[in-house]
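Exam revision sheet. Question 4 asks you to relate a sequence to its structure. Input first:
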Amino acid sequence: MKPKAVVLLSGGLDSTTTAAIALADGYDVYAMTFNYGQRHDVEIQAAQRIGQKLGVVEHIVTEIDMRPFKGSALTSELAVPKGRSVEEMGEGIPITYVPARNTIFLSFALAWAEVLGAGDIFIGVNAVDYSGYPDCRPEFIAAFQKMGELATKAGVEGTPLKIHTPLIDLTKKEIVFRAIELGVDIEFTHSCYDPSGAEPCGECDSCLIRDNAVQEVM
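Answer key, structure tokens:
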């Protein structure tokens, strides 16, 4: 019997590649996607298509409305930055950061993993291209791992869940290479922060980082 893993699947390149890695590593994948009031909710549809294409065991979409909190261009009317240089992207914490988002997502993943009897959680955080996001850093993952050991029945009983971050030290170019190696259909993924319908804007940070990497590899 294969081990079970909960994989956070947003529909973007990083999370899709992470799900493919979990499958390649021999896990039965249980995918979790969040509808948190993001303006780019087309990614939810992408995640559902990807889950079917990858053949995950189960895929749930969890509803969490983070719009009342505001504070992010992804959950409010604040403008999404466009056309920024690499240097500009590397300065400070961007307005597209959603406060505590990965903390919330991982908490839900932790709960579902306990219910499933899964020992592993996969998340596609990356500390290279998204170094400005506090909840994409190795230090955050290590702290959450420790919290999970203290806060769950599994942890207290000596079998804590392990959080896997296979992309955390990779550049976007390296992620694209890995995706291709695993047979990921990149065209199925959606990473844009401010799409027009299903069409990516091509100018937000996520689009620029992704498109540049794909062009270098293809």
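Marking note for examiners. The first strand starts at residue 4 and ends at 8.
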